[in-house]
Amino acid sequence: MSLLHTPVCELLGCDEPVVLSGLGGVARAELVAAVSEAGGFGFLGMVREPPALIEAEIARVRAATGRPFGVNLIPAATAPALLEAELATVLAAEIAAVMLFWDLRADVLRRLRDARLIVVCQVGSALEARQAVDAGAQVVVAQGVEAGGHVRGRTPLLELLPAVLEAVTVPVLAAGGIVDGAQLAQLMTMGAQGAVLGTAFMATRESYAHDYHKARLLAARAGDTVHTEAFHINWPRGAPVRVLANSVTRGERGDPFNSAPTVIGDEDGRPIHLFSTDSPLRNMRGDFEAMALYAGQGVGALVDLPPAAERLQRIVDTARDILAHHNTTELPCN
Questions:
Q1: Are strands 41-45 and 139-143 parallel, antiparallel or unpaired?
Q2: Helix (H) and strand (E) counts in the chain
């Protein structure tokens, strides 16, 4: 077996321990299929999406690849009626796995397990990891504060990972600012069975992110991200995100919590509001600079926009070479 083929690969049915994060809006069928077909495991980002879109995206992935994939849902950010419809759609589709994030919903987890789906829970602390496993999670993702998008905890990955590994016996994946194979190799020497990547796959040809967002990722340097609660509309209060600094994070667009509703964009007829958690997508138009430009702290290392399969191959080739030579490297300081 490959040096990188860990037990979690057997569980998920993938060749390499590289997982595409279920990036809301960005991780659509084209990107998910590309990652899974290349040997990784992709999650569709279907947060607050209508059942018809979920059905269509699942069908598109299946038309492009026969490899397993999953769907990412976030109960805390989804209205109860819509969540119920999403769950019904996912259960009927008989996909391989579901990733859950934010507030743990044990009832949702049990329904998914009862339907024989693999349940992956992303957590920000050792306590959350134990709670997720007690509720039935089969895989835990330890998300460090370096991660882009919504960030549950405030602990750096290199501190969080050992604590989570000690707290649970199920496979643990690492997340947070990971963009290259050297990082993957080090995390695996620490005990992680693989990694979940978001920003690295957002900066690929297949991602559904708008070209403006991709260009900003490639232009970013280490230290250009901000951890903020300014982008909050559509999510519960107190849900910080990591984004590229922009006019909103600099305070140039007013008070995020005491300003009149302002429309700054449009997605197929749906208004995009200032301070919302929406990031720029291919089918949007508007003031992209003021939207949530999600990015993890590793963004400064991204210099090109390759196909997702090429990005994945570079990562696993580097990690495999390092592990084969019994080297260890440190995560770069960001």
A1: unpaired
A2: 11, 14
Find all residues with CB under 8 Å of 197, minimum gap 6, and list them. Answer: 18, 19, 20, 21, 175, 178, 179, 315
User: pLDDT per residue over 54-111, tens digit each?
Assistant: 999 999 999 999 999 999 999 999 999 999 999 999 999 999 999 999 999 999 999 9
Question: Dihedral of CA 318/302/124/19: which sign?
Answer: negative
Radius of gyration of the chain (CA): 18
Nearest alpha carbon to residue 120 among 236, 20, 187 = 20
Give the Cα separation of 109 and 244 in Å (integer).
Answer: 33
Side-chain-facing half-sphere of 168: CA atoms under 13 Å = 30
* Residue 319 to residue 92: CA distance in whole angstroms: 37
Q: Which of 71, 69, 58, 7 is nearest to 29 (CA)?
A: 58
What does the domain layout of the chain look like in residue ranges? 11-207, 211-298
Amino acid identity at 71: V
Give buried/exposed letters for 245-257 (b at 16+ CB in 10 A, else e).
ebebbeeebeebe
Q: Note whether 158 and 331 are within 8 A (CB).
A: yes
Tell me the three state secondary structure of residue 46.
coil
Q: 160 and 125 in contact (C-beta within 8 Å)? A: yes
pTM: 0.95
CATH class of the 11-207 domain in this structure = alpha beta
Does 331 have pLDDT greater than 50?
no
CA-to-CA distance for 201 and 23, rounded, in angstroms? 9
Please report where in the chains the tokens 């903020």 appear, as a residue.
228
Residues 334 and 242: beta-carbon distance below 8 Å? no
Cα separation, 101 vs 257, whole angstroms: 24
How far apart are the C-alpha atoms of 222 and 179, rounded to whole Å?
A: 12
